[in-house]
Task: structure prediction
Amino acid sequence: MKKQAEVRDDNRITIIPEYGRQRLLGYAESFRDLADLFEQDEESVDDQEPGKTDDRLGYLWQRKFQENQELLAGHLKEMAHIMAEVAKETCRYHPMGERRYRQMSKLLKESGIQLKNFFELEHEDGHVEISLTMKTASDKMIRFGEREHISVEDVADFISAAMGSKLRVAKNAPMYLTPEWNTYYFLEEPAYHLLTGVAKAVKETEKISGDNYTFYESDDGKMTIILSDGMGSGDKACSDSGRVIEMMERLLEAGFRKESAIQMINGALTASGKEDNLSTLDICEMNLYTGECEFIKVGAACTYIKRGRLVDRLSTQNFPLGVFGQIDMEVLYRTLQSGDYVIMLSDGILDALSQGIGEEVLPEIIGKMDYSNPNEIANQILAYCLKQSNGQIRDDMTVLVTGVWNQADHCS
Result:
């Protein structure tokens, strides 16, 4: 549900009213103060050394307590950051001219829709959002004794044709118009669209895979692909990796930055004290407006970007989630082009290759593939790896392939 906007000077608006904005900033400052208190307590523990304490076990418990304080302080700071960012969020609004308003009003009226307000909102990142306050006309709601439903998707088509640019319905919008006045939001259609393919194989002694994945699309035109490989195999590994995926998706949806979300999940796993509660995390975030892409790997296998016969191999050297209290993350950046494929793998793929001619040959094999369908590419990679291991599946295997195409190239 969209937040109420408050009009300010020079055609800029804050996303929330001034009173709520000040309260959020106050909460953010309180969370920062709490974080500072926890960090001051940490310094008292740092002053102690193992040799100066009578009880080494007591010292170790103090160190564990300090790690938990560090995690809590980090979480409080991230919450303060999110609140402050929401409070400061603004956009520029442009009321539509009288002529365009009349044109749009007439067009919608022909389809049984009454228009009240019509705005164009320009966000700080440059993306445009169209705001329409409208409702269904009462005389168009009943036809032949049945209620007529007008979908918001149909409205998106109407206004796209009228404005000469492709628009789509904002995420989590209602499906149909109602007889009451409501405000509906429409976004610019991104320049790029994706097709995905998946191929999986379950460890031969198990019935369920320990690998889990998800595709999460946000309203700002970013698609995030998340792959996690739980330690071991079977139900326990599936539960662990599934929990990581679910927590990551929820934190991103709540507005947490990727790096902070990863640290929070890692903190939750290390605080549990279970040595086998480990999972890899592989994240690929694509900006569908610009083609820019970010990759974050936490103990994950290599990722490959296929561009024709050229293959770019992306890898980092770090441990899975749950090993250490803090993760030293490395973010890799690439700019994708129309026709590129992003290939993400779980560890089982590399394990299968190690039984044959090795992982070093995989980029060459991928580069020679002439398939355009992501599913075909994923299945061919999996088949090649199974051949290298003589059909033996010693670990769960997952291949995610995402093809990227420019809308204009695809239409032409």
Observations:
- Confidence is low (pLDDT under 50) at residues 1-9, 141-146.
- The first helix runs from residue 18 to 46.
- The chain has three domains: 17-88, 91-188, 192-411.
